[in-house]
Request: fold
Amino acid sequence: MILTATILIAAAILEVGGDALIRLGLHGSSGWIVAGAVALTAYGLIVNQGRLDFGRLMGVYIAVFFVVSQIIAIAIFDQAPARTTIIGGAFVVMGGIVMMI
Reply:
């Protein structure tokens, strides 16, 4: 379970980070776009290596993705989530926890 959680967190960091790098590249250096593409490819390879049920894996991953995306939005883009985003995200995270059980 710890290995799976670590893999999902790494995958979320790569996916959200890759998207963030591409966003930075659209408004700056094209080198960020290449770095984003590499990160997104690495994400795809990592998340599909496991032997878990794909639907369950993606369901839990969505919860991890949500948390990581909010952290990156705050840290890189200085965008705090709205109250409705936090409330909706709490439901997403609760759903991910239920799927892990």
